[in-house]
Fold this sequence. Notes:
The protein is an alpha+beta fold. It is built from 3 helices and 4 strands. The chain has helices at 15-23, 59-66, 69-74, and strands at residues 2-8, 35-41, 50-56, 91-96. A 4-stranded antiparallel sheet has the order 2-3-1-4.
Amino acid sequence: MITVANRIYVAPEYAAAFEERFRTRAGLVDGMPGFLSNQILRPTKPTDPYIVMTYWESREHFEAWTKSDAFVKGHARSGTLPKDAFTAPNQLEVHEVIMDSQRPDLKPEPHGGPVPGH
Length: 118
């Protein structure tokens, strides 16, 4: 299992529009093999980033998503907010889950190094 955290720095005056974009998202990722869940985390400090979290059964499932037509369609609205809506470049982090308290029988994701392209 892996998690993918996309840290997105949003100017406070664009926060509502940014959140609405996720409320009305295409949702194509939801039907992808190996996709577990998606969370959008709002910062409590305006200078901290939003975090878009996705959870995947495996690295292979996530990589298949990033190479799919659904990924391209799902991100088609990514450029709809103006550049000044973002105060810094986003940061993508991929983590291998080695333990999950909700899934005690989970086998740790094999260590595979960086995900290509990220």
